[in-house]
Amino acid sequence: MFKGLRKGFREALSAPDTLPSLRRYFVNTVFDATFVMLGIVIGSAFTNQSMMVVIVTTILTSAVALSISTGSSVFEAENMEQGRRMDKLGRAMLSSVEETDIGRLSRSGTALIAFVNAMAPLLVGGLMIIPFLLMGEDGVQTAAEVAIGLAISTLFVTGFIMGRIGNRNPWVRGFRMAIIGVGAFIVCYLIGGAL
Question: Is 140 in contact with 45 (CB distance < 8 Å)?
Answer without folding.
Answer: yes
